[in-house]
Amino acid sequence: MAGNAAAAAYVQRVTDEERAKADARRKRWAERDIKRGGAQQAGSFTTRETPFGPYNERPGRGGAPYITTNKTQYPGTEPTDGRYVREEEGQFNGLIPALDAEQFIPLVKALKGQELSEEDIDGLSDDQCRAAAMLMGIANAEAVREPGALKHIRSALRRQANPSHEAPEFLNDYPQGRVGGAGHEGRIRSGRRRATPEVETINDASSSSDEGM
């Protein structure tokens, strides 16, 4: 699988110095998020608007919101189970494969709170708008579970704007998105796991204007 091959390549390239830099930045992001009050837990069922359309959140496990959309909000669209990437019969489906490479740029802009133009939205189908709205909701939910995670996920989504960066590689760039990956960040912080292969994704975020956001 392309994602597994990419993971092996990252492991070969990452140095101890790069890994230490990524760990320090990850820690700094979390500290800043906590100091600012962080993302808020879901207290009740709420519908939130995005430039792509609405998503719903309700209290989930650990206080982090559980994100949904429905066909009333997006008539004629296909339902989604909310996973980033899944493989079915040799095909990759899910929220990440639903978007074209160029559509990840306006998604990242929206996650940074920047205003989108009509041109940013016009090229998206109804199914793609639903996927983009879901991704915004899930990204904000990730920030409730792990302070500072929003910078990391924005960098991982930005890398998807490269047409040669395949959808499964998102799970190497953002391992927390894997099934069972919710505890990944905690294991990194405790020293029980070394931050590979997402080191490059973290350091890419830090070297961009995203670092100051």
Write a structural description.
- Helix content is 46%, strand content 10%.
- It is globular.
- The protein is mainly alpha-helical and 213 residues long.
- Strand 1 (46-50) and strand 2 form a beta hairpin.
- The strands form two sheets. The protein has a three-stranded antiparallel beta sheet with strand order 1-2-3, with helices on one face. A two-stranded antiparallel ribbon has the order 4-5.
- Helix 6 (126-145) packs antiparallel against helix 7 (149-159).
- Residues 1-12 have low confidence and may be disordered.
What is this entry, summarized?
By secondary structure, the protein is mainly alpha-helical. The protein is built from 10 helices and 5 strands; from the N terminus they run H-H-E-E-E-E-E-H-H-H-H-H-H-H-H.
Largest sheet: 3 strands, antiparallel
Strand content: 5-15%
Number of helices: 10
Low-confidence stretches: 1-12
**What gyration radius follows from the Cα positions, in whole Å?**
17 Å
- Cα shape: globular
Major sheet: arrangement of strands: 1-2-3
Number of strands: 5
Structural class: mainly alpha
Q: Say what oligomer this is.
A: single chain
Mean pLDDT over the full residue set: 82
Helix content: 40-55%
Distance between the termini: 34 Å
Q: What keywords describe this structure?
A:
46% helix; 3-stranded antiparallel beta sheet; mainly alpha; single chain; two-stranded antiparallel ribbon; 213 residues
What's the helix and strand layout?
Elements: H1 2-13, H2 16-35, E1 46-50, E2 53-59, E3 65-68, E4 86-88, E5 91-93, H3 95-98, H4 104-111, H5 118-122, H6 126-145, H7 149-159, H8 170-173, H9 184-190, H10 199-206
Antiparallel strand pairs: 1-2, 2-3, 4-5
